[in-house]
Write a structure and sequence with these properties.
The structure holds two protein chains of two kinds. Chain A is of the alpha/beta class. Chain A is built from nine helices and 16 strands. In chain A, strand 7, helix 2 (106-117) and strand 8 (123-127) form a beta-alpha-beta unit. Chain A is globular, with a radius of gyration of 18 Å. Chain B has six helices and 16 strands. Chain B has helices at 23-28, 73-79, 115-126, 146-150, 172-178, 191-203, and strands at 2-10, 15-21, 34-37, 52-55, 58-60, 63-69, 86-88, 104-110, 130-137, 155-160, 167-168, 184-188, 208-211, 227-231, 237-241, 248-250. Chain B has a seven-stranded mixed β-sheet, sandwiched between helices. Chain B has a five-stranded antiparallel β-sheet with strand order 5-6-2-1-7. In chain B, strands 3-4 form a two-stranded antiparallel ribbon. In chain B, 51% of the residues are buried. Classes of the chains: A alpha/beta, B alpha/beta.
């Protein structure tokens, strides 16, 4: 594999900047039957909490124009079972493992982070931005004081791994939240999580998903994500991992130009499980055709 | 996977039958499997975005068929796919129907749910199982592929709500009259039909397998958007993914909503 795609974020080396996004790639192992996980830069594992969580009622998903709404509700097996049952299977692959985690209180965030910090993962990704659960999640990501507290308190117990904070787009000014997270000790930012949305069935006159609202993802949200990565890049100095509607290498380049140092592929994994691997190849070809030595040379290089 | 569309036949105003060439797919497909099909043929089109799940309707000589109903953007695009062009789809996904050497079985189906039952009927016929079909529809337009089923079924009972084709009423009525002769019942169709069939089977202590159709994003067990609630041996309710642990479930264990 070409060196042009190698990156380093917070001291962690990735063979390429393509990471599968949390919530769209299960525990990684679900996809092992369909693709070679060794070819991914990294995998961001589904949001892990202290205890097993069953998620929201069905129906949980609905397709919208060039996107989808979901209200899964951060269903997961809990941190203990993740480490004992899922992580050993994932560790067989040569890819970076980022674990997205969340809690219903600051104490829970701290406890999950403390446990994960001692495990064989590469990075932690704090989810303060899930729109689908009542307690925790987005509540921490849309109040700057709470964002500061949860990042600051959690960072205190993390001794071994870098901490990424995944921001919510459901705020008026994302720059403020990037700044607050950075000041509280975040080592990197990932942006964005899903946008809060809703869809109504006009036959039954009821919302399509049981939670009424859900998180909108897919190509429909890409321009919002690009704008937010661009704003964050101008505001903070820690690395930004760009997320939001990436479907091909062109979208990746766009995120890089806006200010990303890596990207996560989300909903596109549902559409084509091989998409992340295809994008790695396409990116290599693009860099070669443009005579660009390293993809990192593109970060923040949009000409305005 | 990619395959050449060799037929995309309009059966009536609502239903289409698409035939696709793919040796690779056919070599792996078993009765009960489904696949995710990309509705649009161009990579730059992201609307509709997600692939659509379809049961394997039939396989023959390197070709497989999918039955679909015109319902939204995805299926409308599928209906416009020209013969000779190529279409993308996943490998066969999910679990399959189970067989325990039953001598006589009943298939119960309705709507597009009839699709996996044709493949199943053919398979069972080739295993020398006697197969009866109970086929229910709202109107005559919902009754499809009868000539195909006749090749593999010794008896076919059709019902429609308006009575224009077959008997008037719901399909579980004729099924209930003959139910004692069956060693097993397989069903696929609208949820209410599956629930009624399962309840009838439980009442007569006959094993029943149903194939469910839930809204799916990935079809591979990652998104957790297609959950089904099932009772385990201890009577506890468990979450199962329709795409991985299903789509075929023991009808007696499903918790119907």
């Amino acid at each position: 594999m070409s060196k042009s795609l190698e990156i380093e974020i917070c001291g962690v080396k990735f063979k390429n900047p393509i990471i599968t996004a949390s919530g769209t790639f299960g525990y990684g192992i679900e996809y092992a039957r369909f693709i070679d996980l060794n070819r991914l830069g990294g995998i961001s594992v589904k949001g892990i909490s202290l205890k097993e969580t069953k998620g929201n009622k069905m129906p949980r998903i609905m397709e919208t124009n060039a996107g989808m709404l979901n209200a899964i509700g951060l269903q997961n097996v809990g941190v203990e079972r993740f480490i004992n049952e899922k992580l050993p299977l994932l560790k067989k692959y040569d890819t970076r493992i980022i674990v997205n985690f969340w809690g219903k209180s600051i104490e829970e965030y701290v406890e999950v982070a403390r446990i994960l910090d001692e495990s064989e993962i590469d990075m932690l990704e704090m989810n303060i931005s899930c729109p689908n659960i009542k307690e925790g999640g987005i509540a921490f990501g849309t109040d700057p004081k709470m964002t500061y507290s949860v990042v600051y308190e959690t960072k205190k117990v993390i001794k071994n791994k870098p901490l990424i904070v995944k921001l919510s787009p459901n705020v008026t000014d994302i720059k403020l939240f990037g700044k607050v997270a950075e000041e509280a000790g975040a080592d990197a930012i990932s942006a964005i999580n899903t946008l809060l949305g809703m869809a109504i069935n006009i036959e039954t006159q009821k919302p399509y998903i049981s939670n009424i609202t859900g998180g909108l993802s897919g190509p429909a949200i890409k321009p919002v994500a690009i704008r937010m990565v661009y704003e964050l890049y101008k505001t903070i100095s820690i690395p930004i991992i760009g997320i939001g509607g990436i479907m091909n290498y062109k979208d990746v380049v766009e995120f890089y130009l806006a200010g990303a140092s890596a990207v996560q592929i989300g909903t596109a994994n549902f559409v084509n499980p091989e998409i992340s691997i295809q994008i790695v190849k396409e990116l290599e070809d693009y860099l070669k055709s443009k005579s660009i030595d390293k993809i990192t040379d593109l970060t923040g290089k949009v000409i305005v | 996977m990619k395959g050449k569309v060799v037929n995309n036949l309009m059966l009536n105003d609502k239903y289409y039958l698409m035939e696709i060439e793919s040796e690779e797919f056919v070599s792996k497909a078993k009765p009960g499997h489904f696949m995710m099909v990309k509705a649009q043929q161009y990579d730059y089109l992201y609307d509709p975005l997600l692939r659509r799940p379809f049961g394997v309707c039939d396989i023959e000589r390197g070709r497989f068929k999918i039955l679909y109903i015109l319902i939204g953007k995805g299926t409308n695009l599928l209906s416009q796919v020209k013969v000779g062009s190529y279409i993308e789809f996943s490998e066969p996904l999910g679990n399959t129907f189970n067989f325990n050497n039953e001598k006589t079985v009943a298939l119960v189906g309705g709507g597009v749910g009839i699709a996996p039952l044709l493949f199943l009927a053919k398979y069972l016929y080739n295993q020398d199982v006697l197969v009866d079909l109970y086929y229910g529809g709202k109107t005559e337009d919902d009754i499809l592929l009868i000539d195909e089923f006749k090749k593999y079924c010794q008896h076919i009972e059709v019902t429609t709500e308006n009575g224009k084709v077959g008997k008037k009423g719901i399909v579980t009525l004729p099924l209930s009259e003959n139910i004692k002769k069956y060693g097993k019942i397989y069903a696929c169709g609208p949820k209410r039909m599956l629930q009624a069939t399962s309840e009838l089977a439980i009442e007569h202590n006959i094993p029943v397998e149903v194939s469910l159709d839930e809204r799916m994003a990935c079809g591979m067990g990652a998104c957790l958007g297609c959950l089904v609630y099932v009772k385990n041996d201890k009577g506890e309710i468990e979450q199962k993914r329709c795409c991985v642990e299903g789509p075929v479930f023991d009808g007696a264990r499903i918790v119907w909503e």
